[in-house]
Specification:
With 173 residues, the chain is of the alpha/beta class. The protein is built from 7 helices and 6 strands. Strands 3-2-1-4-5-6 form a 6-stranded parallel sheet.
Length: 173
C-alpha cells in the first residue's frame, strides 16, 4: 500500500444514494466508486454524515427539513457494496456537518501525504466542503476529485461545485 496517498469516500450512505435524499445520479456512481476503491493504492477513509433524532430542530434541519442519516438507521449506513470491500472494518469519520475538521486534522497528522483524492456525495455540499478543508490544512498536498465518482444534488450544482474547486487549485479528474 502506498502510504503517501489517501482516498476519501464522502458520505456514500443509503439516504444519499436511494433513500431520503437519493438521486438517480447517486445510484449511478456506486459501481464506479467501488471500482475506484478496489483499484486504489493507498489508505481508504470514509466519512459518514451523522444526525440525531433532533435533526429538525438544528440549523441544518430548519433549512433542509428532510430527516436523513439519523445515527443507527438504515439510511445512515454506508452502502453495503462498499462496506463489503472491507471485511475487517473501515476507517470512518462521523461528521455532524458538511466538512470534517477531524478528517483534515488526521490527514495532516500523517505528515507524509503527497496526494488526497475524494469521491462521493454530494459534490456540491460535502465533497466540496471536505476538499476545501483538506486543501486548507494541507496546502502543499495535491488534492483531487474524481468527477465520475461524485454526484451532486442536481447535475447543474455538481458542475458548479467542480468549477469552484478548480478555482481553488483542486484537480478535477
Amino acid at each position: 500500500m502506498n502510504t503517501k496517498k489517501a482516498l476519501v469516500v464522502v458520505d456514500m450512505q443509503k439516504d444519499f444514494i436511494d433513500g431520503a435524499l437519493g438521486t438517480k445520479e447517486a445510484v449511478e456512481i456506486v459501481d464506479k466508486a467501488a471500482e475506484r476503491i478496489k483499484s486504489f493504492d493507498g489508505e481508504v477513509i470514509f466519512t459518514r454524515d451523522t444526525h440525531f433524532d433532533n435533526y429538525l430542530d438544528t440549523q441544518e434541519g430548519k433549512k433542509l427539513p428532510v430527516p436523513h442519516c439519523i445515527k443507527g438507521t438504515e439510511g445512515w449506513q454506508i452502502d453495503k457494496k462498499l462496506e463489503a470491500l472491507f471485511p475487517d472494518g473501515m476507517k470512518v469519520f462521523d461528521k455532524l456537518t458538511f466538512g470534517s475538521v477531524e478528517l483534515a486534522q488526521y490527514l495532516k497528522s500523517r505528515g507524509d501525504l503527497e496526494q488526497v483524492t475524494l469521491i462521493g456525495l454530494c459534490t456540491d455540499i460535502c465533497v466540496i466542503s471536505n476538499a476545501l478543508l483538506i486543501k486548507a490544512y494541507l496546502p502543499e498536498v495535491s488534492v483531487s476529485v474524481v468527477e465520475a465518482c461524485c454526484a451532486g444534488v442536481t447535475p447543474q450544482s455538481h458542475k458548479n461545485a467542480l468549477e469552484a474547486m478548480k478555482m481553488c487549485q483542486i484537480e478535477i479528474v
